[in-house]
Design goal:
- The protein is an alpha/beta fold.
- Helices cover 36% and strands 13% of the residues.
- The chain has 2 domains: 2-191, Rossmann fold (3-Layer(aba) Sandwich); 212-240 and 306-515, TPP-binding domain (Rossmann fold), CATH 3.40.50.
- It has 16 helices and 15 strands.
- The longest helix has 27 residues, at 175-201.
- The chain is elongated.
């Protein structure tokens, strides 16, 4: 698939334009998950390899329009603004209603969004007030100030009279932060495009609906164990809406958390910035383990979750647990699931895998209502699972008391976890026994990273097509996510897990209907 990306901006964001071309033409085609699937072309008037000629008889915008494809003719349009909106257009270039454009950049933006069909349009604004120069040089100072005010006027279109947003754009702090945002946004867009093409070209990838009735029956009879992965961050979240660390409306994805840490520690450029385990290892090496924990608390601390959107899955599980105590596994570090249970008045115990060295192989166990944890060995933990809902945080968790924070996040953490799984000291024996004759229901559990695949492979005794006896029905397991790569499909299927491509929110909506009397 060949994709064309139009770069639209004035000249004050030159670094961003260079980074954008690097992401588009160098990084994305080499991405391990996209390699061989795409070719990419950046369309920019100042491309050093193919600059647009500027005849004296034409205005700059007329020369660009004549020498390059229009924004509306490209697949993606990327608009970048900071201190300038750009040079006003000549009077013969106006809107259909006769009103003038504020600049060529505004014309390019509107050419894109008014096209039928419109290209995928991404709008970015650098934060921070620019340098307006010497106030004594009134002409230059006034020109810079006027340009900055035009940028503000341009963005007024995205706000309603009450100040609320009616359109989307992304803000960033530095050219480096812009590059990371752009890479993440374009990767998500390309994956969506490739998924759509493969769905239309590959009949055997038609999306068969999950067996809702069978899963509903398993939930009602307490013969299924939900396992929640990092992909839950996409639940309850508008499509193509990036996470904003300064004003979060939802929790970050694994990639967004990775880039947040990478920006904080000047992690080298490259696709590895999306690999959370590698970035966290780098952060720990160049700072400290404590510094890494503190940074994670800033993003995931319990008090910061109050106003975030809640995944419908969490509410569904809290309601289900009223009559059917559950054992729930999760790989997420935050406490949003626990807060949903608290808000519903639903009691639960929490058990956390601990990487705290002074505890040895002990797990942290908070019986419902306890302020301090008990620390039993994994094989000595006992909870009555017939009467108690338990949330098991198998990759650690933050806690209101920072001393109990525990994270499986660096590469060495995952190596240690694998070692403890092999020695049967990571997952309490009580939970392993409980899972042995039950179905497993995975939500947003991505297998794109090596550590997730390796951990799943090390848990083979929990999977495969298990039969209680030769005459009994197969104990099925299922994986639910928006989409799966070919590698993920093969990996799930080899373990007897049936993958279904459907959004988690849509799945829960359908499942709830089956369970409602």
């Amino acid at each position: 698939m060949h994709l064309r990306f139009f770069l639209s901006s004035p000249g004050d964001v030159a670094d961003e334009r260079i980074f954008a071309q690097q992401v588009i033409e160098q990084e994305l085609p080499k991405d391990p998950l996209l390699r061989g699937e795409i070719t990419c072309e950046a369309i920019r008037w100042d491309d050093p390899a193919a600059p647009v000629s500027m005849p004296a008889s034409l205005t700059p915008q007329e020369a660009v329009n004549r020498g390059l494809p229009k924004p509306s003719e490209c697949d993606v349009v990327i608009v970048i603004l900071w201190s300038r909106l750009g040079t006003p257009l000549p009077p013969n270039i106006v809107r259909p209603d006769g009103s003038p454009y504020l600049s060529g950049t505004e014309w390019e933006y509107e050419d894109a969004i008014n096209a039928k069909p419109a290209p995928h349009t991404l709008l970015y604004r650098r934060k921070g007030e620019p340098d307006f120069g010497d106030a004594n040089d009134e002409t230059a100072y006034d020109e810079r100030l006027t340009q900055y005010r035009r940028v503000g006027k341009f963005f007024q279109r995205f706000r309603n009279p009450d100040g609320s947003l009616n359109g989307g754009f992304s803000e960033y702090d530095s050219p480096q932060a812009f590059r990371d945002q752009l890479r993440s946004h374009l990767r998500a867009y390309i994956r969506t495009r490739l998924s759509a093409v493969k769905s239309s070209e590959t009949p055997n990838r038609s999306k068969v609906p999950p067996p809702y009735n069978r899963i509903a029956k398993a939930l009602a009879s307490r013969t299924v164990v939900p396992i929640i992965g990092r992909g839950i961050s996409s639940s309850g979240r508008p499509a193509d809406t990036p996470w904003n660390a300064a004003a979060p409306k939802f929790l970050p994805s694994g990639i967004e958390l990775s880039q947040f840490l990478a920006n904080d520690t000047e992690f080298p450029a490259g696709s590895e910035r999306d690999q959370l385990a590698e970035v966290a290892s780098y952060y720990e090496a160049f700072h400290t383990r404590d510094a890494l924990h503190e940074r994670l608390r800033e993003v995931l601390a319990p008090g910061s979750l109050a106003n975030l959107s809640v995944p419908p899955l969490y509410t569904f599980l809290a309601q289900l647990a009223r009559t059917n105590p559950l054992l729930i596994f999760t790989t997420n570090y935050d406490t949003q699931l626990e807060q949903v249970f608290q808000a519903a008045g639903q009691p639960y115990d929490i058990v956390v895998y601990s990487e705290l060295k002074d505890l040895g192989n002990a797990v942290l166990w908070w019986p419902h209502g306890a302020s301090k944890p008990e620390t039993p060995a994994p094989n000595e933990l006992y909870i009555d699972l017939d009467t108690t809902t338990v949330i098991f945080k198998m990759h650690g968790s933050i806690h209101q008391e920072a001393e109990w924070d525990s994270f499986v996040i660096t590469e060495s953490d995952y190596v240690e976890l694998l070692s403890r799984i092999a020695s049967k000291s990571a997952i309490p024996a009580l939970f392993a026994t409980h899972c042995r004759d039950r179905s497993l229901l995975f939500f947003g559990y991505s297998l794109r990273e090596w550590n997730s695949r390796t951990i799943l492979q090390s848990l083979n005794r929990f999977f495969a097509k298990r039969l209680a006896s030769a005459s009994d029905e197969e104990i099925q397991s299922w994986a639910i996510d928006e989409s799966f790569s070919e590698l993920e499909l093969k990996f799930w299927q080899k373990r007897g897990v049936y993958p279904y491509e459907i959004s988690i929110d849509r799945f829960i909506e359908q499942l709830r209907e089956r369970l409602t009397p």
